[in-house]
Amino acid sequence: MELNELQQQRLAKLERLRAAGIDPFPPRSHRTHPIADVLADFDAIAARAERVTLAGRIMGARRIMGKLAFAHIADESGTIQLWISKADLGDEWFARFRDDIDTFDIVEVSGLLRRTKSGEASIFVERMAVLAKALNPPPEKWHGLTDVEARLRERYLDLIVNDEVRAIFRTRAKIITAMRRFLDNRGFLEVETPALQPVYGGASARPFVTHHNQLKQQLYLRIADELYLKRLIVGQLGRVYEISKDFRNEGVDRTHNTEFTMMECYQAFADYNDIMRLVEEMFRAIALETCGTTTVTYQGHTIDFGPDWQRVSIPEAIVEKTGIDIMQLTELVPLQQAIRAAGLKVENKPSWGKQVDELFSEYVQPLLIQPTFILDHPVPLSPLAKKRPDQPALTERFEPIIAGMEMGNAFSELNDPLDQEQRFLEQGRAYDAGDDEAQQMDTDYLNALMYGMPPTGGLGIGVDRVVMLFTDQSTIREVVLFPHLRQTE
Fold first, then answer.
1. Is residue 247 helix, strand or coil?
2. How far is residue 429's CA from residue 383's CA, in Å, rounded to a whole number?
3. 101, 102, 348, 430: least surrounded by Cβ within 10 Å?
């Protein structure tokens, strides 16, 4: 690789270390404590005159002041000051620190703990070793790397220099742990289902396509786990869940990434009312475990998970906000004509169901800030959900909406194989008419239903959006460690 001038200067220092018999990339460290553990018990360790060995990356400027030098090192847990005197470290290593060690190098230091006159916790360095020589220097403004594209392309650098970014992903881990603990405590069994599927399904989306060379078979990266998890309900695993990566070959915006994390769970002998209660309890539990309170702040809004969630009917909400009664306009062309006549600005969609969804997403969803269940989805929007017995044009389905974001999807699951077959056929007709996100016929899933699936409540939650909410991030790219980006030249 070609090195720039700064990299070449660092390479020369690396070569000087090697020429002096020092391995700039030794195989192990002899660290005795993470920095945070030392800081937590600093005065007691100092009083015992206990020598400790710490390791970390040099952060910020090194200050050389005659026979004294100062720097800070940071590990995964915290930051501490190095107090380096020529008398304690010795002439050779003091000169080496001055001449051959740079910001971002990873070093190991040993010594006693003391506070400076200003009270700053410090390690008075008696021994130093290089653990990794950094050939890349920090960015020019290393303490404030803010260019979004640069941060996401070099996420490793972003994590080094931005404490708040590391905090986001620690919170992400806590959220997933809390979600898993909640489900485990309620008797759900965590399972794994195929990421490569011969028939994609469980959602309305375009798939990524691949090829199995040995089987000479076209396969798809899953767009959802749903149909496999419901096969397990048929198989009498009464409560199951999976936290997994799903893949949808679609556009990218502030709430969509082509590769994303979903939690899906299914409960036998339950319906969507049971799942609504589960969602309320789950978010409340995640908030308490992650934040210590049932309220979080998102983009200036205080979101409260303490009360029961409000419930909103799609047809009623659309009439209220737009004046259009979708239950009286059940064909695509008349609906689009009514939208134009009302002067509403929405994108034309290829099917009636997609047009209703677009209308709702534009004129109702952004107004729903506090936790809300959106109910009464029309049948064409819900090919896997049971119809309402009292209103067969609507389904027993809900979407949880928070701060204007759809957080997931849930149904009383359709378990009539004959009805399901007709829904698949209707989806096939929609696909032929130009809806390339319509669901596919899955004959094996129909065969599973023919063995009998009990009444079942199912739920899918977008984990990335939950993390956005709990970390107050406005875009999904900030909560995914390595989001997909357009290739550069």
1. strand
2. 13
3. 348
